[in-house]
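re: ur msg from earlier - yeah i can do the S-adenosylmethionine complex, just paste it... oh wait u already did. ok heres what im feeding in:
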Amino acid sequence: MFRFFVTCARGMEGALRRELADMRIAGAKGDRGGVWFEGPLDMGMRVCLHSRVAVRVLVRLGTFDAADQQSLYAGTRAIPWRDWLTATSSFAVDANIRDTPALTHSGYVALKVKDAVVDALRNAFGARPDVDPKSPDVSIVLHLAKGQAGIFLDLAGESLHQRGYRVAMVDAPLKETLAAAVLLLGGAHADAPFIDPMAGSGTLAIEHVLAARGIAPGLRRRFGFERWPSLPPETRAAWKRLRAEADQAFHEAEHRPLPPVVCADIDAAALAAARKNAAAAGVDDAITFERADVAALEHRWPVATLATNPPYGERLQPADLDALYTAMGRAFERLSGWRVIILCGNPALERAIRRKPTVFHRLWNGPLEVRLLRYDMK
Ligand SMILES: C[S@@+](CC[C@H](N)C(=O)[O-])C[C@H]1O[C@@H](n2cnc3c(N)ncnc32)[C@H](O)[C@@H]1O
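and the outut:
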C-alpha cells in the first residue's frame, strides 16, 4: 500500500474528489491544492490516465523531521532508493519549501536531497546514477514545511495538463485541466448540444467531447513511471491492462454519435488552431467549426450547454471590452432553456449579464483569481 498525494490547481479540490469517487477510489481526504488517498501503485497510475483535473500524482516514499541540512540528508538517505533507481537510471529533484528557517533556498535543498540519493545508490551499487533535470527517468519531489519533509516520486513526471493534443496555440489558451474543471463544476450536459462561441484553440469543446465519450485524457501521452527501471512485474502487468482497457474504450467510443458540438470564434486563425487540436485529440469528427461573432448567437436548440472563456481584457481597449460584454449579455438573453457556463476573469462581464448565477466557484487561472458562473436561462 502506498500513500498518494494528487495535486490540482486551487479551487479544484472538490472536482478532484468527485473524479476519484467516480474511479471508485475511496477515502480521499482533501487538502488545499490536492487530495490524499491510499492504495497500490497501479491505483496512482489509474489517476494519471483518467483524471481530467489532477496536475500531479505523487507517491510518498517517506516522511521525517528535517529542520536542518543534516536531518534532511539523513532522512533522505534512509529511504530504500535501490527499490526505485539503478546505477544507470537518471533522476531529478524538485523541492518545494516553506516555513523552515534553516532551509530557505529550494535549489540548495534540492542539491542536498540529490547528494543523499547519489550516496545511497553509490553505497548500494558501487556506481552513481546521472542527474538529468530536463528528461529524468525518475522525478523526485521534496515537500518541506515547518521542518517536516515528505519525499515523493512524481508518477507522471510532467504536469498532467499536458494531454498531448495541443499542437496549435492561440493567445491565452485555457489549461486542459482547468477547462475540464469548468465543465465538471459547471455541470455541462453530456447528452445535449454544446457550444463554445469564443472557443480560441478549442480546449473546452475538446474536453467536453473527451468526457462525453468517456475517453481517458491521458491516452495520448507517455507517463514518467513507464521509464522507471524497477517497477514490479505485477505492477507493469496492471498498467498494461489499464492502458488496454482505456484503448478499447476509446475505440468503442470513437465514432459514437454525440449531440452537436460547436466551436465558434470570430478569429479564423483561432478556429484553424482549434481544428488541428481536435484532430490531434481524435475528436474532430464530433465538432463543427464556425466563424461567427458571439453577438449573432442564435437559440438553435431548446436545451444546450454553452461554456466559454471570454477575453478578460488584457488586449482589448476598455470601450471595446464593454461593447463585447454588452453584446454577450444581450445574446445570452435569447438562450432560454440553456445552461450558460462562463469562466469569468472580469467583474464587468457579470454586471453586463445582469442575473444571479445558479452555480458559483472561485478558481485560479494561473495566478489570476477567476469565477466560474453558471446561469440557467429561463
Ligand atoms: C481567452 S480566448 C479563449 C481561449 C480558449 N478558451 C482556449 O482554450 O484556447 C477568447 C477568444 O474569444 C474570441 N473572441 C473575441 N471576441 C469575439 C467575438 N465578438 N465573437 C466571437 N469570438 C470572439 C477571441 O478570438 C479568442 O479566441
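cool cool. The chain has a mean pLDDT of 94. ping me if u need the other ligands too
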